[in-house]
Known about the structure:
- It is a single chain.
- It is built from 16 helices and no strands.
- The chain is mostly helical.
- Helix 2 packs antiparallel against helix 3 and helix 7 (about 170-195) packs parallel to helix 9 (about 230-250).
- The protein is globular and about 70 Å long.
- Mean pLDDT is about 75; it is low at about 255-260, about 335-340 and about 435-438.
Amino acid sequence: MWITRVLSSIIFLAYTVVSIPLGFDVGGRACGLAFSLSLASFYFFYSVLRLLTPSRSRYRWLLVKTIATTQWIILPSLLIWSLNRFSVEPTDSRGWVERTFSGKRAANTSLSQWILGPDGLAETVTVGVWDKFLTWSTPVFQLSEGFCSLLVIQAAGQVTRWLVNRSGKSDSWMIGLLVMSASIISSSVYFLWRVTQFPQISNVDATLIGMAITCAVFLCAWGIGSGKGNPVESSLLFAYIVLCIYQIFTDYQPSNPIEPPPPSEAADFPPFPPIIMASYTTLLQALSTLPSAIHATFNFIIAALSTITPSVIISLAYRLFVLYASTRIIPAVRESGARALSQEPSLEDTDGANQILGVLSWFSPSILIAVYTSLLMQHFATTSNGDNGDWWVSQGGDVGNNLWRWINVAGTMALYALELNLSKEDLDSGVTGHWKSD
């Protein structure tokens, strides 16, 4: 049933979001990388099994159902195994090649210990290759986010243009879309003002922000003035540029800790009626009588949620949204029209691009884990410049920079400018070109 699939997807997403940063926070950098690698490998082989075996095979159905049922036992087991095996971090910051083939390996008593033992060849090569893969794929994920965001912005512009020009209530749609565009721009200006208040912005940063905002305003005005764009498309482009700038200079947390207000004096009268206060006291007494295991579970959940950074969650949610939306928009733009927006990519499509999207949809859990781990590593590398980031550098992590985020901002605006320069003022193109109107 679709309800079961939705609940399973929600549980998988919640477990992934909570468990991977918990592995980094409790076990360290090597433990987090090993756990994310084990998760990605598990779902990769699971996807390969579903993809290569015949869909009508009884053995395939039994094996897939068994793995899908037992994955909720396998996933916590992988976390416990990673915490037990990789909690001890290397004492130096050398790469996995130096640690594996150094002279200290002579202390191993056997070949199997050198290959399969702690800090052995198999362990250091797999985790080291996964580390390098995530590090090198960060620019790919960043630039893919900008490209997919531009696809979503242009698709939204075409849909709203169709609603205004072909719908029966064009005036109502025009007023509503103008109000929405004004709200988006106002919110973006507010967050841009928030960025200007950050104390860590230097003169070079201020210059880059000014250049990016100037180019974004010029592109928005060019699109609206030439008729090749519309207010919705321009407001979404401006909002995305502001979002990128906001992600560069903030962690979605206050720069200075907020001091708690002084305790107020006790009032002469209770804040609520006596019946509510009595019920509240009874509830607290009932909760205090619960077994200690429930209290320990609740404290563990609170500790796990405290390791999640809001900036990473927002970036992950936005990146997943634009990547998923692009898998629906690309077939619609190529040949299928708006009908493809309601269809999943499939390997049975005759078009090569749709087949590639179908393959990516099969391996979406592994891609999700890789994208999320890359965002976490990018966050830890960025925060390593502060006072609390020494642990990341001491464990072999790199000091982060925002070069690829600035390249993404420049590349997105350059691609949009090229699109405006080459496109024509055609209302019946792209997604809405296959729609019918009475």
